[in-house]
Amino acid sequence: MTLYLIFAVMSGIAKAVSDKLHFHWEHSIFKNNKLFPEWFWNPKISWKNAYKNNDPKQGSKFFGSQTIFRGFTDGWHITNQSSFFAIVVAGKIGHCLWNNLDYSIIAILLQSLAECIFIGLIFLLFFRKVFERKNK
Q1: Which pTM was predicted?
Q2: Which candidate, 8, 45, 76, 136, has a CA 20 to 30 Å from the CA of 86?
Q3: Distance between CA atoms of 135 and 62, rounded to whole angstroms?
Q4: Is residue 135 in a domain?
């Protein structure tokens, strides 16, 4: 039960940070705070961290910086990704607890990671292909 609560709380906190950055950056503890450098936490500029010299026209900063490793390039993406992963893990732990199933936390973490990667690939397909207007 403790692990379930830890991951559920982690998910809620990460989601709160993600939304605070995205919708209320100007009124957050993250703005003008030496512990939270603006280049990483301010969503108005940090989204460019995935690109060479912070310029989308120059392409990816490193392999996967716009895809599989995008979640590590700025505060909004890392907290959004962390929230999603934690809620998937909490859901799996809850399922095992409530159904009296024996489980290994390592197996749950690996299965959750695989599911998040799969869902991420589906997201990229729809975000970049299906929902993209053909003639910009």
Answers
A1: 0.86
A2: 45
A3: 28
A4: no
